[in-house]
Specification:
Layout (H helix, E strand, L loop, with lengths): L6 E2 L9 H9 L19 H18 L5 E6 L2 H13 L5 E6 L2 H10 L4 E7 L23 E4 L1 E2 L4 E2 L11 E4 L16 E5 L10 E6 L16 H6 L9 H16 L2 H21 L17 E4 L4 H13 L2 E2 L10 E4 L6 H17 L1
Parallel strand pairs: 1-12, 3-4, 3-5, 5-8, 8-9
Antiparallel strand pairs: 2-10, 6-7, 9-10, 11-13
Helix pairs in contact: 1-6, 2-6, 3-4, 6-7, 7-9
Bound molecules: pyridoxal-5'-phosphate.
Pyridoxal-5'-phosphate binds next to helix 3.
Amino acid sequence: MSDQRVYNFAAGPSTMPLSVLERAGAEITNYHGSGMSVMEMSHRSKVFDDIHQQAKVKLRRLMNVPEGYSVLFLQTGASGQFSMIPLNLMGENGRADYAVTGNFSEIAAKEARKYGTVQIAASSADKNHTCIPTQQELKLDPSARYFYYCANNTIFGTEWQYVPETGDVPLVCDMSSDILSRPVDVSKYGLIYAGAQKNMAPAGLTVVIIREDLAGHALPFTPLMMDYKTMIDKDSMYNTPPCWCIYMLGLMLDWVEEQGGAAGMEKLRTARSGMLYETIDQSRLFTAPALPGSRSGMNVSFRTQSEELDGKFVREAAEAGFVNLKGHRKTGGMRASVYNAMPVEGVEKLCDFIRAFDKNN
Ligand SMILES: *Cc1c(COP(=O)(O)O)cnc(C)c1O
């Protein structure tokens, strides 16, 4: 690791592998003999088309995306999908089920209400979003056009440990904060999406994996740029796509492949989060609010009994080279975001730091 780099536990945008950054750096002024940077290329050039197609092929391979699904590279962030999903999928009956298990699913449900009838299939709001509902607790509407949930709650630090069973109702999932961190059976889903800035690429790219038969039924007033069909028909190239982010995604996917793909990522994630929860559970000072069985493998939330001590922890950690550990303003406390690119070594050292702080305070 080069001298001045820190261990960056930011929730997003977040750390990327040093080797990926170095490769982008080496190629930044002259990509593969083209005489120009990827930032400067026409998105319709042959050289960029290769970058685009390769990124798609790699993602399809790593996530084992079946035939009949399209991979789209879009903009407007993960939040853009909060509108795009109901606009495209609610259809004529206008009904959808939402599981509200944190901040982002709550916003998504609120946004969807503009376009139709949202049934709250489950909510953890009364438990301060410290847990994930069980399958038995889900109240399912068989006439819903889709069932929406957020796989990993970035702010509250909880994560679904199972895939909901919804019969014929297509599953729609926000995987922004845990995509590619474990193998996923894409065929169980109607639509998967993720803002890239946590696990995959710089901010500005949203990856959507959609079962093709779900597109083409957008509400009549759907903005042109928000119609999945437009983007499927034009292979994400209706207008200028986020070229640089797509290129960076390609580099990141090479790196994921080198680590053993989604299964390799899952080993790393288990190592990272397991170590952190064990250290927190064995400490005197720290507790993790997320309930066992719902704990996130990506965003580890923890706190002491005192805000003052939390502040001291965050300050001293930053001085020691562990940055961005302050929790979200909605939760307080601390949060270590340990996404795909966080080296296990960084977590080992953070655990040493937590143990030393626990002893000295
Ligand atoms: C970060 C995040 C979002 C919002 O992403 P933007 O790209 O900023 O819109 C949505 N959902 C989840 C799960 C997130 O972690």
